[in-house]
Amino acid sequence: IKMKKSVMVFRNAADVSISLRNGTTVRVNEAKDSSWEGGSVWPPALVLVSHLDAETMVTDAQLSQARVLECGAGCGLVGIAAALLGARFVALTDLPLALPTLRENVQLNNVCNNNVEVCKLDWCDPRDTIEAFGQPFDVIIASECLYDVDMTLPLLQTLHCASGSTTRCFVTGIIGAEALASFRRHALHFFEKHGTLPTLCVGNDEPPRHVQFMCLHAQGSFELKSR
C-alpha cells in the first residue's frame, strides 16, 4: 500500500498528536499516574488512525454518512480522529475508569459539538447501551482492547449487537496467541466474512512497527480500498 505522505506521530510527555490529511490534528492526553493499560496509546491505535486517514477502511464519502462506534476506546485517539475526518456520529465507549480521560480528550479536540458521545459500555451486558443509540452502527473499531481469552465472546457479542446488515468492524491489537486464535475461531459464528487490511507502518520508530488488522462484515462481501 502506498501512502501520499508519512504519518508522523509526536509525543510530548503524555501527549500524542497526529496530523491528518484534511489539515486537522488529533491530539490526546494519556492517563497520568495510572497503571490502567488503556490509559496509554499503543501502536495498533496509531496504525488504525493511519488507515482512516488513507481511506483504506472507508472512503471520505462513506465516513461522512457513518455512525462510528469505538469499543474499548481508552484515550479515544481513533474515534476522535474519525470525528475530525468527518464522521456523522461517533460513540466513544469504555468502562467507567476511562470516561474522564475520554471526555477531556473530546474537549481538547473541540469535537464536543460534532456529534461525539462518551459513554460506558460493558461487553458482558451491552444490550441496553447499544439499544439506546437507536440504530446499528456503520463502522465499529476496536484497538488493543482484547488480551483476556475469556473476553473474546463478550467482545464478539457486543460487536454483533451493535451491527446491522452492512456494518464493517475493524479489530486490531489482539494480545496473545490464545486470545487471537479464540477470536478467529469464534468470529465466523457472528460475522459472515473476515479478512485483513494491508499492513502499514507509521511513526518515527526504528525499526518501523507493523500491525495487522482483522475486518469483519455482517452480511455479504466487501472490498477494501487501497492506494
Please provide a written account of the structure:
With 227 residues, the protein is α/β, with parallel strands linked by helices. 29% of the residues lie in helices and 27% in strands. The protein contains 7 helices and 12 strands. The protein has helices at residues 43-54, 60-64, 77-84, 99-108, 127-132, 152-161, 177-190, and strands at residues 9-12, 15-19, 25-29, 67-71, 89-94, 116-120, 137-143, 163-172, 193-196, 200-202, 209-211, 213-217. The chain has a 7-stranded mixed sheet with strand order 6-5-4-7-8-12-9. Helix 1 (43-54) runs parallel beside helix 3 and helix 6 (152-161) runs parallel beside helix 7 (177-190). The longest helix has 14 residues, at 177-190. The radius of gyration is 16 Å and the shape is globular. The model is unreliable at 1-7, 205-212 and 219-227 (pLDDT under 50).
* Overall shape: globular
Largest sheet: 7 strands, mixed
Task: Specify the helix fraction band.
Answer: 25-40%
Contiguous low-pLDDT stretches (5 residues minimum) are 1-7, 205-212, 219-227
> What portion of residues belong to β-strands?
25-35%
Helical element count? 7
Separation, N- and C-terminal Cα atoms: 6 Å
Helix and strand succession?
EEEHHEHEHEHEHEHEEEE
**Rg of Cα set:** 16 Å
Descriptive labels:
227 residues; alpha/beta; 7-stranded mixed sheet; 7 helices; 12 strands; globular; disordered N terminus
